[in-house]
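ok so for the tutorial part 2 we go from a plain amino acid sequence to predicted structure tokens. step 1 is just haveing the sequence, like this:
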Amino acid sequence: MPELASKQTPPSEASQKDATQSRPSSAGSPSATGAPQYVITAENLTKRYGDVAAVDGISFSVPAGEAFGLLGPNGAGKSTTMKMIGGVSQRTSGNLTIMGLDPDQNGPEVRAHLGVVPQQDNLDEELKVRDNLLVYGRYFGLPMSYLKPKADELLEFAQLTDKAKSKVDALSGGMKRRLTIARSLINEPRILLLDEPTTGLDPQARHILWDRLFRLKEQGVTLILTTHYMDEAEQLCDRLIVVDKGKIMAEGSPASLIREYSTREVLELRFGSERNATVGAELEGIGERLETLPDRVLIYAHDGEAALEEVSARGLRPVTSLVRRSSLEDVFLRLTGRSLVD
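step 2 — the prediction. this is what the tokens look like for a chain of 342 residues:
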């Protein structure tokens, strides 16, 4: 599969030149001391709607080229944080800089160098696939001499070349998602914001999309990703924050969070909806920790098969049993007491 060509400097109109000139020249490059150069920095970032704190004093930094995730359930504050980074929602308090610029004060300059993939596709259904890219590029003041070859390059990257002249409404959900990502790259952004990028896609479409995102990351694009899919966060993110009710519950790489907050394996047992709630006392002492959910009982253990043998030795016969490795779902359950899909 082709990768995107190395960045070229397109001929542009005055608005694009002004935005380019306002880029901090050091953003995304190593500092003189060798410390990572952060392209996004948030300090005590807060967004309130009346008495409700959608984002409640969170702090994080993202170095250039990292895939950084915000993991949490619906309503955790992920999308609100993305809107503040994108400069389309002003923060209530705290500090936020994007490539050294304040998005509240320098919104157009910041947005000129961001790519945005919203939670819901907002493609122009009446236009053909290639025309969606061309029209979107004109919003950035980019000339057609640059946009035409760039659109062809992006369609090839998104595996949509054969759909260039098709109407958008004839595309599958996965194709529309790939077109939305291709459109977000038309201005060669330094940072790509992806809000729940694979919601509603089937497994095959999700994996195709993951492959495209891996390729972008290999080319040095900084990815900011929100998701409530644990496997997606584990696959795509170098580092992430677990958020709930507007607060950061934990921060680290997926592997480090699992090591810190869970065991190597998990034994899932199902005894039936009524029996699940009462069997806990009979399982005490097996494994490191026990969690009782409405539909199943979880036993956290370093050796799941040994835990299952102990369950059987006690004369307990679950309807189903499953030994699996720990995941970010288990981390979230440990931190908040509830499932990501609650």
